[in-house]
Write a structure and sequence with these properties.
The protein is of the alpha/beta class. It is 28% helix and 24% strand. A 6-stranded mixed sheet has the order 1-14-2-3-4-5, with helices on one face. The N and C termini lie far apart (70 Å). This is Calcineurin-like phosphoesterase domain-containing protein.
Length: 285
């Protein structure tokens, strides 16, 4: 009896691992529409986050094809496109972004892996500087605590969150004043987008002035269960409601991507990698 139960458990575990391996390659293109009076004409945006060196086909051809099918006006990147390690392989992310930069403007905000490479230079050497230099050579608008305009009616800001905001179990609380200290005041007349890698701080982001906050980091919660959502974040928080999806509060929005790759916990169940499409539409009347 015990032998049969053990064999059944092993078979179930093997089946789940195979399913996870299958899901990690299933790119899902998902669209969200937001209406606003702040823009003069419609804008289609693609949001990419948490690639972690993953490749959808040789040289990410399937991901590039998916972006081409969308035909975006602009691409926004929310960070963690690589894995920060002492011998980090920057090839995958730089090759992908180089191809995307030929298609349309790109705005890039840092995630925890980029900021770790920048902060811990004793361990990572000049990798961060090399990475940023290559991105800028491609024409990427690199937003390290900085705001830049896209068109005359849209502003995009990226903030670098300190390590204390990524602590496991009990991260520090990010206040609106801290966002202002890092990146300056929000644009009030333009549609203000904020690239804030962690989705824990939507309330502060919208109070700072973000009309749309774009986040990732939680990888959809690793395993997603019906009605319960994501099971566990990389910071070991369980069943947080904002592991993925679109959220609205007082006319301000946050979109949390499930990400494109995995890191450390290489599991995805009911949690396909996600390419986010935001159709920003002019509200009339």
């Amino acid at each position: 009896m015990w032998l049969a139960a053990g064999m059944l458990s092993a078979a179930a575990g093997a089946g789940l691992l195979l399913r996870s391996q299958y899901e990690r390659e299933q790119l899902s293109v998902e669209r969200t529409e937001i209406l606003t009076e702040k823009i003069t004409r419609d804008c289609r945006m693609v949001f990419l986050s948490d690639l972690h060196d993953h490749e959808f086909g040789d040289h990410n051809k399937r991901l590039l094809h998916a972006v081409d099918e969308v035909k975006p006006d602009v691409i926004l990147i929310g960070g963690d496109m690589m894995v920060s390690r002492e011998s980090a392989d920057l090839r995958v992310s730089l090759e992908l972004i180089g191809e995307l930069a030929k298609r349309c403007p790109i705005y890039y905000g840092n995630g925890n892996h980029e900021t770790r490479m920048n902060r811990e230079r004793k361990n990572f050497g000049m990798q961060y500087d090399i990475y940023v230099r290559e991105l800028k050579k491609m024409g990427v608008r690199f937003l390290s605590n900085r705001t830049m305009k896209f068109r005359d009616d849209i502003a995009v800001t990226g903030i670098d969150l300190a390590e204390r905001y990524y602590k496991k179990f009990h991260p520090d609380h990010l206040r609106p004043e801290e966002i202002g200290r890092l990146a300056g005041p929000a644009e009030r007349e333009r549609f203000q987008i904020l690239l804030c890698h962690s989705p824990l701080f939507f309330d502060s982001c919208r109070k700072w002035g973000a009309d749309l906050t774009l986040s990732g980091h939680f990888h959809g919660g690793t395993i997603r269960l019906p009605y319960l959502g994501g099971v566990m974040t990389p910071q070991f928080q369980f069943f947080l409601p904002w592991c993925a999806g679109t959220f609205e509060e007082s006319g301000k929005y946050m979109i949390v991507s499930r990400g494109l790759g995995t890191h450390s916990i290489n599991i995805r169940l009911n949690n396909k990698p996600q390419l986010v499409v935001v159709n920003l539409k002019r509200k009339t009347g």
